[in-house]
Amino acid sequence: MSEYHEWNSFENTYMEDSFVLDIQESDTQLSLTVEIVLTEEHPLYKPPTETEKYCYRAGNIVFNDLVSVRWLARRMQPITDADDRIDYGNIDIFEQTSDGYHLVGDWGEIVVSSSPPVIEWSTWIFD
């Protein structure tokens, strides 16, 4: 078993305080749109604004070459933050197990069998 911060492209990220904004699923790909927390060691890191606790960067966690997607729970209840933006909560668990990639958060629980996930960084940045 391994955890996300040990994988290429996930180093120096902190998913437990990142926010899931959307989840898109197709026959070949699962993509989570996320406001990702970057640690100071990340090359894209910038000091947080006065109103933010962390440096956030928009990106998609993408699982390509899907073999299977198994939802163990699907909640997707929107949460409105202090700035009136909607998200679906954090990623509390993100690990690789013998069954695949296991993710858990307020939005649900899922096991994904696919090629290794990657982060595709968005060109837009949160204010």
What does this molecule look like?
The chain has 127 residues and is mainly beta. The chain has one domain (2-118). It has strands at residues 2-3, 13-25, 29-38, 55-64, 68-74, 79-80, 86-87, 91-97, 100-105, 108-113, 118-121. The strands form three sheets. Strands 1-8-9-10-5 form a five-stranded antiparallel sheet, with no helix packed on it. β2 (13-25) and β3 (29-38) form a beta hairpin. It is globular and about 40 Å long. The N and C termini lie far apart (36 Å).
Detail the topology: elements first, then pairings.
Elements: E1 2-3, E2 13-25, E3 29-38, E4 55-64, E5 68-74, E6 79-80, E7 86-87, E8 91-97, E9 100-105, E10 108-113, E11 118-121
Antiparallel strand pairs: 1-8, 2-3, 3-4, 4-11, 5-10, 6-7, 8-9, 9-10
